Structures are given as C-alpha cells and as structure tokens.
Amino acid sequence: MSAPFEERSGVVPCATPWGRWYQTLEEVFIEVRVPPGTRAKDVRCSLRSRDIALAVGGQELLQGKLFDSTVTDEGTWTLEDRQLIRIVLMKTNRDAGNCWTSLLENEYAADPWVQDQMQRKLTLERFQRENPGFDFSGAEISGNYSKGGPDFSSLEK
C-alpha cells in the first residue's frame, strides 16, 4: 500500500472539450490538452482561491469561478511533454462530503453517473484514511455514501 490511494484505485475523470478534471479528498486535478510544441512562456495561468484563468498563446482556454475554494499558495501548474498542462489545486475543505459536482460554478459539471462515481471514490478514500491497515482501493460501496458516507467516529473501538 505504498502508492497513494488514487494511484491504486484509479481516478474518475470528468471529460471536457479541452481535456478532463478529477478529484481526490484533498485535491482537484485539471488536465488541458494544448497544441504540441507549446512552450511555458506561451502559458498564462492565474490560480486564486476561487478563480482560475488559463490562456495559451493568447487564446483563453479556461476561465471562471471555481466550484469551491482552494488554498491559493498551494496551487501549481506544469507543462508536460509540451502538449499537456496539468493544474493541481488544493481543496480548502478536505472532507469526503465535499465532492465537487463541477469544476467551475456553472461549467464543466460531471454527469450524474460520473458524479456518483466520484462520490463513491471519495467515500472509499475517506474509509482508507480512517483505517490505514486496510486496502479499500478495489472495494465496491453501496447504500448511503453521499456526503461522505456514514460516520463511524462515535462508535466505541
């Protein structure tokens, strides 16, 4: 179990016209396809607590108000193989019940099936954190897992 939970269990991506986004309990990942040969100096990326703006070669690719707040100082972007921009945002609210239903407030929403799968994944990730001796990466979950699933913290150990 040395690999992070999302590496063992995979991710639940939400496809967009420019690429995809997905999330874990702590982070939101955004992958934007850009023209091959793009150079870092062609990229303009602004990451703020509730706002994002990304332009490549003067063309705006992504801009708007994020679904929820992020930690400004911990947001990063990288250009990979001169054809993919990967943005990592740290969620302010890192609770399993904080499953983003869309990347921006009114855009790039996950369809209901993808949203359901995202919530399941975050609930299993929460269980993994609460029970580090067990591996939930291949587990299936059913029942009431919305808003982070059941809370077992009040049970005696």
UniProtKB/TrEMBL annotation:
CS domain segment(s): 14-104
Signal peptide segment: none
Domain of life of the source: Eukaryota
Molecular function (Gene Ontology), one example: unfolded protein binding
Localization (cell): Chromosome, Centromere, Kinetochore; Cytoplasm, Cytoskeleton, Microtubule organizing center, Centrosome; Cytoplasm, Cytoskeleton, Spindle pole
UniProt xrefs under CDD domains: p23_NUDCD2_like (cd06494)
GO annotation, biological process: protein folding
Region (Disordered): 135-157
Keywords: Acetylation, Centromere, Chromosome, Cytoplasm, Cytoskeleton, Kinetochore, Phosphoprotein
A Pfam family: CS
A Gene Ontology term for the protein's cellular component: centrosome
Gene3D superfamilies (UniProt xref): 2.60.40.790, Single helix bin (1.20.5.740)
Chief location bin: nucleus
InterPro entries: CS_dom, HSP20-like_chaperone, NudC_fam, p23_NUDCD2
Task of the protein: May regulate the LIS1/dynein pathway by stabilizing LIS1 with Hsp90 chaperone.
Subunit comment: Interacts with LIS1.
Protein's UniProt name: NudC domain-containing protein 2
